[in-house]
Each structure stands twice: as structure tokens, then as C-alpha cells.
Specification:
Mean pLDDT: 89
Region (Disordered): 172-192
Protein name: DUF501 domain-containing protein
Biased composition (Acidic residues): 172-184
Pfam family, one: DUF501
Shape: elongated
Amino acid sequence: MTAPESLEADLRAVERQLGRPARGVAEVAHRCPCGEPDVLRTEPRLPDGTPFPTTYYATCPRLTGAISTLETEGVMKEMSSRLAEDPELRAAYEQAHEHYLARRGELGEVPEISGVSAGGMPTRVKCLHVLVAHSLAAGPGVNPLGDEALEMLSDWWVPTSCAALHAAEDAAEDAAEDAAEDAADAAGRTAP
């Protein structure tokens, strides 16, 4: 598969995941172990001109569902409390904030969101989705609270690979389209 074909396949996968086309995609920032994209790196300004501070955007429904479960269990409140009490954690989280801003700055400057990262960084925890997406994209050791949340998640890609399910869905859709075309061709022919 060539790079444009690969990007097109990734964008189709993300559209399936989100139920809509992705906006402002700079690149796939991380792939699920099943092979599908699960985190996008997005432009800081969307195509319609809207400033968009969420550089790392989790797209996999299984991943986002697992993160949402953590949020409902009060993990963000506990992490925010620890930030207020632990100067080492606070310093590491500040560094994660700076990393986030630097990586977004590589894509362009948007004055309306200058200095604003996402997920509540650097002073609180507002969105675990952003922190986990940042950890997946940047790798371990960059965002301490994203790393912690990631460790709390079960293997969201198990028991069935999303990529395998989507390949089967695509094959069935292609077969149905081929059958419809064959039927249309047969109906258009005249008997001798």
C-alpha cells in the first residue's frame, strides 16, 4: 500500500470509529495493537478556522469507552488531589504540559490557544482521554498521569481485533456492491 492509500485507509478507519470524518488530521499518532489508528495528531486550527487545542485525539471507541469508565470512577478527582499535594508529580505534569505545547507548536501557532494545552494540564486533571492519548502518542515517561491512567486500562483491543472486524465488514460491503453491479449488468443484457 502506498502512503496516500495508507492514509486513506486510516481515515476510513477513523471515520468508522467516530461515525464522522476526522477533521484537521496531521497524522496517526498511535496505533492500537490490532493495527487500527487509535490516536490522531490534529492540527491546532481546524479547516473551518476553529482553534483546536486537542493535539492528541483518541478515536478508538473501545479505548475511549474504557477511559470514560475511569472518569466515572473518580480517577480525575483523585489525580487532581495528588497534584495539589505532590510537588514532584506537579513538576512532571508541568513538563508534560510543555511537551504537549511544543509538539502542537510544530504544527503551527494559533494565538487564541497559545499556552493552553489540554486535559487540564498543567494544574488539574480535566480529561483523561487527552492524557491517555498523549501518553500513547509520546510514549511512556512523558505524561505521568496519562501513563497512570493507561496502566489502569484493560486491553481494550481484546478479545476481537477491530481491524479484523473492519476487514470483514469491508469485504462483505465490497461483495454486496459487486453482486449488485453483476445483477444490474445481467438485467441490462438482452436475451438472444
